[in-house]
Amino acid sequence: MAMNDSVLLDVRGLGKSFGATRALDDVSVQVAAGSVHAFVGENGAGKSTLGKIVAGVFPPDQGDLVLRGAPVAFRSPREALMQGIAIVAQEVALVPRLTVAQNVFLGAEPRRAGFIDRRAMAKRFARLAADAGFDLDGRAIVGGLSIAEQQQVEILRSLAREAELIVLDEPTASLSAREIDRLHEIVRSLRASGRTVILVSHFLGEVLDLADTVTVLRDGRLIRTGPASAETEASLVSAMLGRPAARAYPIKRLAPADSPVALSVRGLSAPGVEDVSLEVRAGEIVGLAGLIGAGRSELARAIYGAAPTSAGEVTFRSTALGSTPAASLQAGVALIPESRKDDGLFLGRPIRENVSLSSLAEMTRFGFVRRGQERGRVVGALRQASGTTLLEAPAGALSGGNQQKLLFARSLLVKPGVLIADEPTRGVDVGSKQDLYELLVRLAADGMAVLLISNEMEEILGLAHRILVMRQGRLVAELASEAMTEAAILEAAFGAAPASAA
Q1: How far apart are CA 481 and CA 467, in angstroms?
Q2: Residue 271: half-sphere exposure toward Cβ, Cα within 13 Å
Q3: H/E segment holding residue 336
Q4: DSSP assignments along 6-69, one per residue
Q5: Range from 24-33, 110-119, 266-275 carrying the lowest mean pLDDT
Q6: Rounded Cα distance, 278 and 288, in Å
Q7: Calpha distance 31→197 (Å, rounded)
Q8: pLDDT (tens digit, 9 = 90+) per residue, 280-336?
């Protein structure tokens, strides 16, 4: 890939700490103008912190940023934007009550006679969305959008400001395959137009496909920077982990043929879900595939009692579940939600409280929590999930991978017979993914029934014993054994070829 060798951004000796955690330690890197420069590393390696310092989200504790040959210091993303640097963050930061168009042009609205020109804003939005290939209604309220759609709004907001340098922090984590392809086209177009992109990503294939240069970080330190053409996924993983890469997916043990049905769904209808029936047996991992918006997360929430149902029945071991999450948990069905930020964790509260939250009744006597019992049980669950045992640190201080392990630990604490895992490795690094893959396979081997939802095709194929495909709120295919292929999933998801309904 052609690259302009002139340096746009020179990062010199950056250091950053959050309390006792050293996030960055003496990191120096140069970013060439008109290039795509990727930052990779495990969760907690410092890659997102480095990107956020560049974009003005965090101030560095030490070191300097030199932009176009001149030192700069940003106290906010707004100051960085004034210098031509924008960020699309991993966790979206939108105003939920405003429309899509209002969010895209917030602070940069077209005006006429001192007032916002809504007609001009609508025209500009339509042109911008069309150029980006995003099918978004500018009049829609952002709070009602899916995570993938909100991510698209963030991308459009960055493009609307015509930033010279755009930091993309896990931009494709919630996008479908088609949307990812379109975003990749946009990144290439940005580079072709002379803009510079810093790409922070866990998807190494994406990095190798898009980046001119790759910087590898580990434990807050710079490991190496070099041309992407000299790297492979295996070489990057080894550099990130400091050891050779392990097997991507653990060997999954098949459930016995006479294994009992743990979760049964019959004729379930709910918002976004129409007449769905399925079964998951004890010891089985069933993958739920489909495009974003196909109804997978809506189905998970309906099964769990987190969304109202209009028809159908859900049973656990032949006993009907209640209609609330509390009833499901009590019966033995747990859910790892799609968004740990919005639906999973209280990021400002201690790790201990986040893990014990669903099991407090078992640790309470006369209205008081038995702290010793709570700590012991939480530590045990965290160890089972390969998570941290620093109980009093706030959950928000952890990396994305360790935050995800808190959700698993919380679920394991209730000893469920069924685990519904909705995007369990979203925004998680390679090492943590491996831990979670091994945990899921181990839980199934121990007799747990797992319903796995994932946008990553390889993840579904690598972990599931059977795959169910959804399209437009319905189950349209069931795949097993040799029929479980990427082509078969895509055909069913897009409706490109006939598929036998489940």
Answers
A1: 9
A2: 5
A3: strand 333-336
A4: SEEEEEEEEEEEETTEEEEEEEEEEEETT-EEEEE-STTSSHHHHHHHHTTSS--SEEEEEETT
A5: 110-119
A6: 11
A7: 9
A8: 999 999 999 998 789 999 999 999 999 999 999 999 998 998 889 999 999 999 999
| C-beta separation of 53 from 16 below 8 A | yes
- 400-456 pLDDT, tens digit each: 888 999 999 999 999 999 999 999 998 787 778 889 999 999 999 999 999 999 988
Q: Which amino acid would we find at residue 285?
A: I
Going by C-alpha positions, the residue among 476, 439, 433 that lies closest to residue 458 is 433
**Rg (Cα) of the chain, in Å, rounded?**
23
Tell me: pLDDT of 368 over 90. no
Give the CATH number of domain 7-241; options: 2.60.120.460, 2.40.50.1020, 3.30.700.10, 3.40.50.300: 3.40.50.300
CATH of 261-494 among 3.30.830.10, 2.60.40.10, 3.40.50.300, 3.30.280.10: 3.40.50.300
Task: Give, to the nearest 10 degrees, the angle between helix 400-413 and helix 371-384.
Answer: 120
pLDDT digits (tens, 9 = 90+) for 37-54: 999 987 778 998 999 999
